[in-house]
Design a protein that fits this description.
alpha/beta; Rossmann fold
Length: 243
């Protein structure tokens, strides 16, 4: 089954335990939101799922499509269908967005997509994201505003078509207009075959991307699970509701 299953996951960073037996399941077709205060382990979870070497898994398991994710390289995890949208997307000077995305896409195909076909497809998706055509020739995230960087992340999702999307604080640093554009891009990618794990501090993103499930992460474990109404409660009361 195309579901992400995390069981009793324990993770340390520089000998400090951050995740302490975290378990959750994200089926295909569902959007799960992970909310929690600073230092609760949200970004640690995202980085661990994609295989960042800084994060050491001391126990527990992660499977996707019934395969052991933890034994895979980040590249193999990506080819399996996992995708991470960074909280702080890095800049890659000297590599154009167009070449970067075409190379990433062709790495997942048995036959490379022809250049004219790729750029026609890319331009079509850029229009839906409200992105200017000069994005194609600009260096990856080089000189981009916060909103431009986040739109570039969603553009990658639209082109690569991953089956499990992990969005790490995609709303960070966005004004209202940029937030709506990014949310529209995410909503356009919702499908019965694609799962999404959205990590956020605030309920405001969930005004635009309605989750099926909201989970509260505090102290390295999931302490409460509910529907979209749980995010509204947290907005009113803060995390004291569940502590």
């Amino acid at each position: 089954m195309n579901q992400l299953v995390i069981t009793n996951l324990n993770v340390t960073v520089e000998n400090k335990e951050i995740l302490k037996g975290l378990s959750l399941t994200v089926p295909a077709g569902q959007v799960h939101a992970i909310m929690g205060p600073n230092g609760s382990g949200k970004s640690t979870l995202a980085a661990t799922l994609m295989g960042h070497p800084k994060y050491e898994v001391t126990s527990g398991s992660v499977t996707y499509k019934e395969q052991d994710v933890l034994v895979m390289s980040p590249d193999d995890r990506s080819k399996l269908g996992l995708f991470l949208s960074f909280q702080y997307p890095p800049e890659v000077a000297g590599v154009s967005m167009g070449n970067f995305l075409r190379t990433a896409l062709n790495a997942r195909r048995t036959k490379p997509m022809a250049v004219p076909e790729f750029f026609a497809m890319m331009q079509d998706k850029m229009k839906t994201m409200g992105m200017n055509e000069d994005f194609i020739t600009r260096g990856v995230n080089e000189g981009f505003s916060g909103g431009e960087k986040k739109r570039a992340e969603i553009l990658q999702m639209a082109i690569l078509q991953p089956s499990m999307c992990i969005l790490d604080e995609t709303d960070s640093g966005l004004d209202i207009d940029a937030l709506r554009i990014v949310a529209d891009g995410v909503n356009a990618l919702r499908s019965p075959e694609r799962g999404m794990l959205i990590i956020t501090h605030y309920q405001r993103l969930l005004n635009y991307i309605k989750p099926d499930v909201v989970q509260v992460l505090i102290g390295g474990i999931i302490v409460k699970t509910g529907g979209p109404e749980l995010a509204m409660e947290l907005e009113k009361t803060g995390y004291e509701l569940v502590i």
